[in-house]
Fold these 3 entries.
Entry 1:
Amino acid sequence: MAEGDTTTLERPFFEAARGEADHPHSAVVRFGADAPLPLDAGGMLSPFQIAYQTYGALNAARSNAILLCHALSGDQHAANVHPVTGKPGWWETLVGPGKPIDTDRFFVIASNVLGGCLGTTGPSSTNPATGQPYGLDLPVVTIRDMVRAQSMLLDHLGIARLLAVVGGSMGGMQVLQWAASYPERVFAAMPIATAARHSAQNIAFHEVGRQAVMADPDWRAGRYLVEGTSPRRGLAVARMAAHITYMSDGSLHRKFGRRLQDRDGHTFSFDADFQVESYLRHQGEAFVDRFDANSYLYVTRAMDYFDLAADYGGVLAHAFKGSRTRFCLVSFTSDWLFTTADSRAVVHALNAAGAQVSFAEIDSDKGHDAFLLEEPEFSAITRGFIDAAARAVGVA
Ligand SMILES: CC(=O)SCCNC(=O)CCNC(=O)[C@H](O)C(C)(C)COP(=O)(O)OP(=O)(O)OC[C@H]1O[C@@H](n2cnc3c(N)ncnc32)[C@H](O)[C@@H]1OP(=O)(O)O
Ligand SMILES: N[C@@H](CCO)C(=O)O
């Protein structure tokens, strides 16, 4: 696909993407029976495929590759116009020619996660055993499974070591997992607005969202693609609730306060009187046009299961033992979902492991989603960290 191509999909995008060897909007690598993916849930996933985008060029030494890991509802369209929404890629604030992650200098890779719905195998993909969408027959996947699949993509691309792996939120979990699972493949790691384990509060929010999806009669026990329905209302409510957690009290107040939506007074009804209600309804409705409900269940579950220390005897530092990767962690002051304390816990573990680590807490009122928005200090830190890594490995 050419950058900027906004061809409209004729079918819902996740139906168009499911199980096909090719994806209309991204490069796809398909792993057959000779390359099964071992899953933490047990067993192997085979065949499976990964949809990805690349930006910039790989240098002759193959030393300038940067992997971007996306958050819960992101995808591979980090720095190109999104084929479904027609909006800019989710990280165009940071990624592009001359930007902090400079595609004139670096070969940037972004792939859709396992369990997702934009071309990588997920619950809307075709189950080869039945010829129908997997639905809930797809094994539950983990962050480690996602990263294992990404490592196979890198093998396919002929990249032995990444200059950097970078991501926020669930993307940051993948960054931490990369550093733990494949330390020799990661020169620099930037986990942003993330944590080494999902908190009880965050699992609780996810469970509310999943219950909203599953309570929608159109969910049909996960078989809605086969039955020709779509749990739009449930997924929209899930997104509305989640979206509140991505913002802060301050940013909601700054954007909307108690202002009314296109009216002079209360209607004494349950219409969206307040701007903030109208805004949330819009976020919910926009989401169902670009995301698959079952993928929402799988990807939130992967985050819930993430507890890196648990895989290393309960001691997070052991996950980074002997690591030569250099780390830069970033948190945002108003992020109450993945707090500064969560990042500090990782920094402490890295210090205990003797790893190279720097940490920045950015002052912002934008809440968790600050990492997706224009934040000059965040951009400057990213540029500095990536440039220093590039200098250290001799990337021009
Ligand atoms: C991280 C990844 O890997 S990818 C996933 C990232 N993308 C998302 O999460 C998408 C949904 N999230 C958002 O939109 C996030 O708030 C952000 C951070 C990405 C963008 O934030 P901002 O640029 O501040 O946008 P904001 O939150 O104000 O939302 C703007 C939208 O709300 C709409 N809106 C604003 N006020 C109102 C209102 N009173 N009533 C109805 N709609 C409203 C705007 O029209 C705009 O709609 P559009 O997106 O369809 O054009
Ligand atoms: N709002 C972003 C970040 C959530 O962690 C997303 O939907 O992916």
Note: Residues 1-11 have pLDDT under 50 and may be disordered.
Entry 2:
Amino acid sequence: MTKLFSDKNKKGLTRDLIEALFPMFEAASAGAIAVDRQAHITWINVSYSHLLGIGDPATVIGKPVRQVIPQTRMPEVVETGKPLLLDIMEHNDQQLVVTRLPFYSEQGEIEGAVAFVLYDDLQPLTPLVSKYRRLHQDLAAARKALARKARGTRYSLGDFVGASPAALEVKRRARLAAGREMPVLLLGETGTGKEVLAQAIHSASARVDKPFVGVNVAAVPENLLEAEFFGVAPGAYTGADRRIREGKFQLANGGTLFLDEVGDMPLPLQAKLLRALQEGEIEPLGSNTVVSVDVRVIAATSRNLEVMIAEGEFRSDLYYRLNVLEIPIPPLRDRLADLGVLCEALLEDIRDGLELRGEITDAGVSALGGYDWPGNIRELRNVLERALTMGEDGSVLDADAIFKVLPRSSGNRPASSLMAQPVQLLSRTLAEAEAQAIEKALVASRGNRTRAAKLLGISRSVLYEKLGRLS
Ligand SMILES: Nc1ncnc2c1ncn2[C@@H]1O[C@H](COP(=O)(O)OP(=O)(O)OP(=O)(O)O)[C@@H](O)[C@H]1O
């Protein structure tokens, strides 16, 4: 075959040859069509016309083939001169297996192409077709994931799950924010989806092809924050480091900078951030020159900035600069109506990594509604994950399975005694104990992570590292 279609043998596929083979192909196929060099239809048989839902074949003669069969690749065949021997083409919800061949003049010039529908009933090919569909879906998903990874985001607005009026209002504001360039301030307790939303706004904005750079202010040691934000000029410290180290502002240039836990920013840095936002210029550490940056800022905090302003811990001018569009994200306890859809979405995600059915009964969802969720959706995910891995058959979560893993602080039925729980790896038990201790500290501090870290006797950055592993 390859030789027949090689450049040297172009003449082998002349109009004469095609014409000689044509009656046989036409009789064996479910439809046939021919186009000229410009991919305009020159001939179509009655069976193909029927298949396409065309009453009179004469009405399509002379029309560009794409106008009649939008998914066809015949223009590509006349353009490249290469046959497409086997292809599955979608047309009006039908899948047709087609073959397309170019044909040449005696002088070796492309004259046009013919196509035959080999099968219009894919029943006998079901295994092949479902494999093709799966591969097609996998490819589309992989492409989407790659595109998101390239721009630094994983989430779009569809990933912010919720249909309650409160969740819909959040999405409405997020869409508004995506359409404008203004700074946005996301307010919400830990685990309510501030990062999900920040990424979603970026993904839906005009900056989508530019970087999304996130920095968690609370997780960076105070003495490194300035360098982290504004970068370091060559040799700024000891002279040993001769390279420029770019800060988050430079990395986010043209795109979006997400300032998570902006309420944890020390006052001197607040002044520098304000200047950067006002002037659109930054000064890398140890440099005397300013660099222009074009960055859209989305800030987030779980703290009450107005109280912080009153106590002199946050600059009011920076607050007004950041808070042009405010999006309060309600805690999960205030939108329990979303528990069902959230469980479905989270279980689907968890299931991906495990060989489990991973479903929850209505009674299971009701059991979740009795808890006050200080760790919000992050905690909900952890509870579902724990319930699934601890469940007897590991697949369907009913009320009992939920009660077994809900933390005691909620005033629910107490979790079953340790003795009733199966023996598991020590590392897993320790990790669960750690997760519970963190949750408890977050409950006690009502989500204030600086206080939670103090209660746990660890630094804020260590707490963030652990929370990152939990999410
Ligand atoms: N509305 C939502 N729909 C689906 N998943 C969500 C939603 N909100 C949060 N999540 C999930 O919960 C986890 C925590 O979300 P995220 O990190 O965005 O919260 P956060 O408010 O930024 O938390 P923190 O303040 O602790 O950084 C993630 O796994 C995220 O996928």
Note: The chain has three domains: 7-119, 157-330, 336-470.
Entry 3:
Amino acid sequence: MAERTEMPCHEVRNVHRSFWTGGQRVDVLRGIEMSVASGALTMLRGRSGSGKTTLLNLMGGLDRPSAGEVMFKNRAIHQWSDRRLTVMRRQEIGYIFQTFALMPLLTAWENVELSLRMAGISRTQWKDRVARCLELVGLTKRIHHRPFELSGGEQQRVAIAKAIAHRPLLLLADEPTAELDSHMASHIIAIFRDIVEAEGIAICMTTHDSTLWGAADVVYQMADGRIVTE
Ligand SMILES: Nc1ncnc2c1ncn2[C@@H]1O[C@H](COP(=O)(O)OP(=O)(O)OP(=O)(O)O)[C@@H](O)[C@H]1O
């Protein structure tokens, strides 16, 4: 079992993000301060349009702030080149989306294996790691199924196995339970808890679902582009 630490894995410091649309400036993030600890489950909540996805995109290096600092493992990633960010995303970050983002023609096993290939992990490690990740999400009996042969909850569990296979430091999940019934949503959160504890991965997820907030180590609430509670 990985050692649980309180060291920040990720810090967002006074981050602003504005967009120009139709000649108007829209200030979506207005001075966000937050941190995500290694080995902790962090949730972001807030009304639709409050900027949760915009913030996750900045955290994962998919976008850059208009002002402020995005620190990942003490490195100022907002200053990095696109090329360097791409390598970081492949090797150090896992993503999960509301829709399950699996390759439709590949089996569950092959989908998970693909992320190891993309991250440049040695082929000799693939078998053990794919088996371990599919076991963590409880899908050992579905390894040869393709996405269309799996339920929505099962597809999301494959997506989780795929997102953690390369041992990212940080897993970002945007409304990962939005398409699932409440039973499966709780199951996914239980899997997230297992992952932070067994693998020491930091998870930051957004959710509207108030029944899930109790499972988090930290919940940040967003409103008007700011964090209003912790
Ligand atoms: N590229 C962009 N250009 C212009 N406006 C944008 C852009 N990206 C996001 N926005 C605006 O920023 C605001 C916040 O969007 P965001 O998707 O971050 O909210 P959210 O909290 O994730 O919402 P939801 O819960 O509905 O997913 C919205 O008003 C959106 O229209």
Note: The pocket of adenosine-5'-triphosphate is lined by residues 19, 21, 26, 28, 46, 48-54 (CB under 6 Å).
